[in-house]
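Margin note from the TA: students keep mixing up input and output lines. Inputs are the sequences; the output is the structure of the whole complex. Example:
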Amino acid sequence: MDFNNNLPIYIQIMNLIKSRIISGNISGGDKLPSVRDLSKELRVNPNTIQRAYQELEREGLVFTQRGMGTFATEDMEIIKNLKKTIATDLVDKFFIEMKKLGFTSHEVKEIVSEWMEREERE
Amino acid sequence: MDGKGGKGMKNIVEIKELTKKYLNKTALNNINLNIQEGKIVGILGPNGSGKTTLIKILTGILRQTSGEVFIDGNKVGVYTKSVVSYLPDRNFLYKWMKIKDASDLFKDFYSDFDEGKFEELLRFMKLDKNMKIDTLSKGMHEKLNLSLVLARNAKLYILDEPIAGVDPVARDEILNAIINNYNEKSSMVITTHLVRDMENILDDVVFLKDGKIILSDNAESLREERNMNIADIYKEVFSQ
């Protein structure tokens, strides 16, 4: 994974774990990779991974069991909310970019409808 | 890094008002720097910024003009040399040697050299004990030297330009080896000008320019404050 953007790396790692959770790549209750393993996988400082896990825990997305490791939350409500938040963020970003390009809300709606029709046909 | 250290965090290195003058030039000008246990610290700066002078003082190769340096609570000397594992930026092995001779040399020299750990590192780096030193490529040389240095159970590892001039595959192997061998009880000081390649493994960064520290902070705090990655901050700082 490339961390070329300008966000702190722990936030980028939080986002990575979040996307793994909502895509079902990590299921509720699954054990997350150890700090050391993820550090190797992503080639990132272990303290940075630790920080990402701590922040995820603060947000209620993961929990730690002493001596066992870190696990994804089993609370489906939290995962559902996370999905919603991420979807809202993506849609916000999409609209902001489209507006920047000069599209009106109406035009965006048409483009989205066309996209959905095409998707249904395929 | 602010001179006092964090809560309960021990400083492995304490540098106070360190100055090094050569005849007509000040190489280091009033450096103050603490390095905490369990941290990987990048010393960043272009050639001639004072990185090598700083390292040579930490390793006891050079003496400072004024100021104080403590490593694990001791002034630089016999004890600190025994707890500092140093990777120089040039080759330090004889051409006639095989890798296993280099291993024997280190075993004789350093009581904290862990042969098992060294063999593990060799496997990881895809090197063989029977290889001859003078047949190794630049990347293999660098991997061997790093394996020797990391195989010691030191308090402080000092790596001078560990990825300079190596190919991308060797670079990744070197970065992996550094991460694999990280432990909370020791610290690493890494000098580099290849900031883009190294920044993700650093806890703290120290920008050195003309012998002075012009910026020193936690890498994530800097990214957060400036909305830039460390490589871009480096460019901004040193292009002025």
